[in-house]
Design brief:
single chain; 9% strand
């Protein structure tokens, strides 16, 4: 007859508490990662919106069209590049990328709120 080894109550309680703490810490870690990701994404969107508004205001106030690219000031780590509607000419760009070619092209997404990916 095989004997069955039982853990002491102290060992069982310790195992239960270790498992409970591991689950709690995992949940908190996932929540923190999601919170930081959302915060960084929101900050980036706000910076981009601010740059877009400043750039639009510049072009509204500009009397004649300039042949050179408008250099935008950096606000954090976000770089912005403004192109014409056809995506063939850069009108404005953040200072680190002011002489770069067109970096991205607009893509349409049927699942997003504004239609852009």
């Amino acid at each position: 007859m095989a004997t069955r080894k039982h853990f002491s109550i102290r060992a069982r309680l310790t195992s239960i508490f270790v498992l409970a703490i591991a689950l709690i810490l995992t949940f908190i870690g996932i929540a923190l990662v999601n919170l930081v990701h959302h915060s960084l994404e929101t900050d980036a969107k706000n910076q981009i919106q601010g740059d877009m508004q400043r750039t639009q205001q510049f072009f509204v106030n500009q009397k004649s069209t300039s042949a050179s690219t408008v250099v935008l000031a950096m606000h954090g780590d976000v770089v912005v590049q403004v192109t014409n509607l056809s995506g063939t000419k850069v009108w404005a760009a953040s200072s680190p990328i002011d002489h770069a070619p067109i970096l991205a092209h607009e893509t349409r997404s049927p699942t997003s709120i504004n239609g852009l990916a």
